[in-house]
Amino acid sequence: MLFSTPTFLFLFLPAVLMIGLFLKKEAQNLFLLLASLIFYAWGEGWIVLLLLASALFNHCFGLAIEKGNSSGKRKAWLIAGLGFNLSLLIVFKYAGFILANLEPLLRSAGIVISKNITWHQPLGVSFFTFMAMAYLVEVYNRSCPAENKFLHTALFITFFPTVLAGPINRYSSLRQQLAERETTPELLSQGSRRFIIGLGKKVLLADTLARVADHIFAIPASGLTAPVAWLGAVCYTLQIFFDFSGYSDMAIGLGRMFGFTFMENFKYPYISRSITEFWTRWHISLSTWLRDFLFLPMAYSVSRRIKSNRWLGIKAESWSYYPSMFITMLLCGLWHGAAWTFIAWGVYHGSFIMLERSVLKKFIRRLWTPLQISYALLTVIFGWVLFRADDFSRAAGFWRAMFGFGHGDGLEFYPALYLNNEVLTVLALAILLAAPVGLALAKIFDRLCRTTEVKRLLWLKGGYRLLTTTLLLAVLLASAMRLAMTTYNPFIYFRF
């Protein structure tokens, strides 16, 4: 069940709100757990048992880690818990990829694998397993105590706003909220506004741009020209941002309705001045997870083993930073999907981060700010082509066309074929909203309020509330109408 479907908007969500908001804390937690299981089972059927098993086993592993009477036992339980979660990922997400790549070797050994084997990837498996692993590590590091109530652990892992695509929350940040939180009209209003904004991003912007991107990325390499390729790359760049950030807004808004505060997941990534900065603004919950639970432990482990400031003429900090960053970003790419293109995309970003730290750092700092943003944005756009392409040859053909070496004649495929009035309007609006225009307007309004006479201040604030409420209602109405008119409702990150 997607957030951006009539079933969720007009049946599931109203029912959950009407019942859940009038229940006491523990009763509400139990109800939200049941609602979350129904939400997941709606699209995944019996695989909801896998989600429930994940919650049960991780609850038990957490208790075992905390009750371990020696560091060795605690570490053993942690390794067992992490192994359990990683096995879910390997079996349900990567087994097909592994077997496909081992197939020539197995065939030479006389082992034949049926090519008809299909692997179903449970929705959100990358997200709920990462949340579970973070919980176990936090318990091991004593960042938070193990949860004694299975109800709380299960709700944390299965909660319907975040189970499919995050944000990847930390248990330490939600532990108190699971036990004690407020559900007030103000929070309901804040959550509703945030949800509508996310719905508009997804349905009105991302889905419109997706149609153009999908058509262009389906064009054979022989038909691509530079203008068409750039149009497809830009549309996909904006689509994936508004698609995923829209989902995150909806998830954060739903959490607020029930008194939960989830971490922010995006902070205008397309105004970054470097790839390093991009990863502090894009999918923040994943990048901080990788930093805290993968990169820093690896870097610390390496630096601890190097006794001198230099080894083989290279600084010790370089030995700890570069290999750790390379592995982290490689695994970041693999997390996104079981394909070599995703792995290459992770290595691509990791290479630029390492270059920025070593040879490009001073050069980038000297550039004019618009040039810094242009460098980062162009690097990201070329990366998204690799991310979107089905294979390397497809990505290479797209890149060639973007550089002006395409083989198309521009007669069969040309930009005007895709740029109707609706697409042009959405494209312009998406480019505008990808920058912090709203924040700038809010600051202007705040300054205006501080310098306005008291008599006019009430009128000004009243007009502002009326305008924003009208815009939100218009977005909600337009989104509902769009959903009623079309069945085209893609969501990129569900396959991760």
Concise account of the structure shown:
This protein is mainly alpha-helical and 496 residues long.
Quickly list its features.
single chain, 496 residues, mainly alpha, 2 domains, two-stranded antiparallel sheet, 19 helices, globular
Q: What would your notes on this structure say?
A:
A two-stranded antiparallel ribbon has the order 1-2. The protein is mostly helical and 496 residues long. The two termini are 16 Å apart. Helices cover 72% and strands 1% of the residues. It has 19 helices and 2 strands. Strand 1 and strand 2 form a beta hairpin. The radius of gyration is 24 Å and the shape is globular. The chain has helices at 6-20, 25-44, 48-67, 71-108, 125-140, 150-158, 171-179, 185-217, 226-257, 275-281, 284-305, 316-336, 340-358, 361-366, 369-388, 392-402, 421-433, 437-451, 454-485, and strands at 310-311, 314-315. The chain has 2 domains: 32-181, no CATH class; 190-430, no CATH class. The longest helix is centred in the first third of the chain and has 38 residues, at 71-108.
